[in-house]
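Interim report, section 4.2 (structural modelling).
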Amino acid sequence: MAATETRLLLLGTVMLFEPVNGYQLRRELLSWQVEDWAHVNPGSIYSGLATLARQGNLDRHDLVDGTREVAVYTSTPQGREEFERLWFAAVETVDLLSPLPFHTGLSLMPLIERDRIVKALRSRLANLDAKVREQLEAPRDLGSMPPHVGAMADLWMGLAQTEREWVANALGRIDRGEMGLAGDSTSWEAPADDPGWQMANDRERYRRLIRGR
Amino acid sequence: MAATETRLLLLGTVMLFEPVNGYQLRRELLSWQVEDWAHVNPGSIYSGLATLARQGNLDRHDLVDGTREVAVYTSTPQGREEFERLWFAAVETVDLLSPLPFHTGLSLMPLIERDRIVKALRSRLANLDAKVREQLEAPRDLGSMPPHVGAMADLWMGLAQTEREWVANALGRIDRGEMGLAGDSTSWEAPADDPGWQMANDRERYRRLIRGR
DNA sequence: CGTGGAGTGTTCAATATTGAACACTGCATG
DNA sequence: CATGCAGTGTTCAATATTGAACACTCCACG
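Predicted structure of the assembly:
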């Protein structure tokens, strides 16, 4: 779990679906096609959850569900604070060659208050600008570096520019209430055919089992 | 060494500077500011070299340099083949959320023949186009996904577009012989003040020591 | 000359990651 | 009602990664 985005992702997903077991998380993340970007294979989910529990960011409940034993996780207050911290770091920190934390953060936006999202994105915008300026003003020892290195720097600048525009645009959309965030006038609702009802059932049962101990 | 870009980077850097020891590699990579992107801390260099040696991609020579023992590495024929394989995979494979293999590949361009670079970049261009088309034609269940997910897809498209243009442009530059690659009419030369002479000395000494065993 | 700080070169224990494999429950099929 | 196959939920040994710490040399400075 060196890659802090695994922490962020697991903590966030638990918060979205708690109480929840490892397999449900795996299924959910697969359905987000997260495996395409984050590197979450079954093993790292379970060990990541264990680590987060050991650190006091999650509570582990060993339930007996019917005949079956199942390990179900819920977030702790400390875990929710940790999530906020990680989320801010992921969204504010610019590293164009490791975009995963940022993308992970974006995908977990709904867990953060609207005002704080705006604050974090504005901060990212500033950081992007700073990095671009830094790059432009760098003592471009032209001639001292091979041409392909210069070309790579161009690519980097292009990516920074693209992201900058996207962030600015996103801030506009949020401002106009178009991002479906909590507190927007027209907050987004999941469609009615409801593919997640199964998990909602489990969740309710888990909740009762936790209470009844 | 799950991240295959560490393999690629180490193998390539050894090929650039062989015979070379772990510390020299570390210094060189630091000077490329590689630690900013790839995650190479001292430990992973040494264990990565050990792994590559165990697999027969590198030879390890335990030399006595003056009074000091030093572990010096050279590439094997198998290692050079492996490098080509890894390089092609890194440059051809499009994963916009893990740009490191591509960047690592770009930084090691000088180790690859010009024609093969062109081939790989053309292939990447095709793969980028394919992914973009796929994304556009995806059954955009508009309304079935929260708006922030759609916004993330927009970001992804923008990045793909930016990279596409850069690759097309780079192909043009290579074609006009502006990239300083081996075989270009005006191949690029390091400036004369020669910051690498120290390593060149060590290299020569290591070569003699290896021969004299 | 000793004392210490910077540079060189490497190891190592603690931790994380990988993905194959396990164990179990339905349940459909011949 | 065996057989096997898809789904559920988790563990584990092998491997990789981390970064602090080690051991050494060189050299400057009081």
